[in-house]
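Please, structure for the following, as tokens.
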Amino acid sequence: MIEEKPKRVEERKFKRIPLRFGLETPEFQAVGIQISTRGLFIVTNRHVYAPGNKLVIEIEATKGFYTVQAIIRHAKRALPQMIHQERAGMGVEFLSVPQELRDYLASL
């Protein structure tokens, strides 16, 4: 029997952090959940982009703001009447993470 390798190397933390995101500049406000030092899930239903697009994300931390680039790995929209029953948004993987931000995310 072939043993499957786990998809996630790191546990995700079910915290909420404020952030801004956009394709070229961080222009839309949202909340990040399911956080790890490798990525997070952006909760949004209004500005959901297709997987493969790159985002610029500005994360609010205790010591200020950090800007990172990320790639969208999966995305899902929800019907307006289903927004409270289904999670809508984008799962992103960070492309570059400053060490200070990595430390902050690990400490959550």
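Residues 99-107 form the longest helix (9 residues). DSSP finds one helix and six strands in the chain.
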